[in-house]
Write a structure and sequence with these properties.
This protein has about 350 residues and is α+β, with helices and mostly antiparallel strands. The chain has a single domain, classed as Malate/L-lactate/L-sulpholactate dehydrogenase, NADPH binding domain (Ribosomal Protein S8, Chain: A, domain 1, 2-Layer Sandwich). It is about 35% helix and about 15% strand. The protein contains ten helices and eleven strands. The protein has helices at about 10-25, 25-40, 55-60, 90-110, 125-130, 185-195, 225-240, 280-295, 310-325, 330-335, and strands at about 5, 70-75, 80-90, 110-120, 135-140, 165, 175-180, 205, 220, 265-270, 325-330. The strands form three sheets. Strands 2-3-4-10-5-6-7 form a seven-stranded mixed β-sheet, with helices on both faces. The protein has a two-stranded antiparallel ribbon with strand order 1-11. A two-stranded antiparallel sheet has the order 8-9. Helix 1 crosses helix 2 (about 25-40) and helix 1 packs parallel to helix 3. It binds 1,4-dihydronicotinamide adenine dinucleotide. 1,4-dihydronicotinamide adenine dinucleotide (NAI) binds near residues 45, 47, 123, 142 and 179.
Length: about 350
């Protein structure tokens, strides 16, 4: 079992912001990234929390993101637009695009806004939740580097291309559902490698495209639910990348190959104002009714209760934000040190050994 330390959210934020500033990121941007990563860890999405700081810092220090991006909004229609993000740090660039989308959806009832040429944007939950807190229905998708074999194939083509949804409700935080389109995130394979633990052979394949339970042999991840996840990851790539005129499929840039290169990734936001279809209070009431009805369903054998999608993350968030967030000791050691790595992540291809 990995040792963890309980860290107060404000302290974690401060440490992340300092580290990213030390790597060269502007303070306002470091502040946004820190807020985003603390959110992820607080939700229990540890694969996209403070664990990413080391990699982000190395890429920032090596010039693989534009430190002072020239972000430009191009409105292409009543409800459409592209935010040219100039390969700014992912969270800062994506939040810029989201803010344009929120304003547009409130004005015209719906918005489809692409964030063009961004770096890794982290957990999608953060963005869709923020839009749902503005009483909008939100969908977001983004590209990630090719490390997944298509259904029936033995070579990598798509990324773990996530898709997330959020809807406002009458009481409590919005319902947020957010998933990678692979069986498991790459972070879970890394975790098994570090512990020398076998993985289920339904997660990934080896260099011959054969299912493997050896995490060290993994050369490709598998789509969730076979052809269904495969279909979803293609649509995510088309909507968040190809539609914006960006590289797609196997030509999407790699996270770990060359950290001096910009990533040129895409992300899309699709926002809907419920008021344009029904009135907002009755919509939010219906969501509340659905959540209540789900909670009343008798649990199956081996389950404590039915949680609505995303509820377990929300439970973590409420608990960890008030009582502190469990952070792996080695991550905290790194954050508290003066270290910025220059050769930890680069040159390893998609399947980083760390
Ligand atoms: P996951 O498999 O842990 O969870 C998927 C969804 O199922 C979540 O909404 C979760 O709340 C829900 N869920 C889990 N257990 C549940 C239960 N017992 N009852 C009800 N709902 C439950 O998430 P996954 O697929 O590992 O993705 C992790 C994160 O990685 C996401 O935030 C995603 O946005 C992010 N990601 C980001 C990428 C990027 O390049 N920016 C690439 C891939 C993933």
């Amino acid at each position: 079992m990995e040792e963890t330390v309980n860290v107060q959210p404000a302290r974690l934020h401060e440490l992340i912001q300092e580290k990213l500033s030390r790597a060269g990121l502007r303070k306002d941007q470091a502040n946004l990234v820190a807020e985003h990563l603390v959110f992820a860890d607080a939700c229990g999405i540890h694969s996209h929390g403070a664990v990413r700081v080391d990699y982000y810092a190395e890429r920032i220090a090596k010039g693989g993101v534009t430190l002072d991006p020239d972000i430009m909004f191009e409105r292409t229609g009543a409800s459409t637009g592209i935010v040219h993000c100039d390969n700014g740090v992912g969270q800062y660039a994506a939040l810029n695009a989201l803010d344009y989308a929120i304003d547009m959806a409130k004005e015209s009832g719906a918005a489809i806004v692409g964030a063009k040429r961004i770096s890794h944007c982290g957990t999608l939950s953060y963005y869709v939740k923020r839009a749902a807190e503005e009483n909008l229905i939100a969908i977001s998708m983004c590209q990630s580097d090719p490390m997944v074999v298509p259904f029936g194939g033995s070579e990598n083509y798509f990324g773990t291309n996530p898709i997330a949804f959020a809807i406002p409700r009458e009481q409590g935080a919005p319902v947020v559902f957010d998933m990678a389109t692979t069986v498991q995130a790459w972070g879970k394979i890394l975790d098994a490698r570090s512990k020398n633990q076998q993985i289920p052979d339904s997660w990934a394949v080896d260099a011959d495209g054969e299912p493997t339970s050896n995490p060290h042999a993994v050369q490709g991840l598998l789509p969730v639910a076979g052809p269904k996840g495969f279909g979803l990851m293609m649509m995510v790539d088309v909507l968040s990348g190809m539609l914006l005129g960006l590289p797609f499929g196997k030509n999407v840039s790699s996270m770990y190959t060359d950290l001096t290169e910009k990533r040129n990734l895409g992300q899309i936001f699709i926002l809907i104002d419920p008021n344009r279809f029904t009135d907002l209070p009755s919509f939010k009431h219906s969501v509340e009714t659905m959540v209540g009805e789900l909670h009343e369903i008798a649990p199956a054998v081996g389950f404590k209760q039915v949680y609505y999608p995303g509820e377990t993350n929300q439970i973590n968030y409420e608990q960890y934000m008030s009582k502190g967030i469990p952070i792996a000791e080695k991550i905290l050691d790194y954050l508290e040190s003066d270290t910025i790595h220059f050769n930890q992540y680069g040159g390893t291809g998609s399947f980083a050994t760390i």
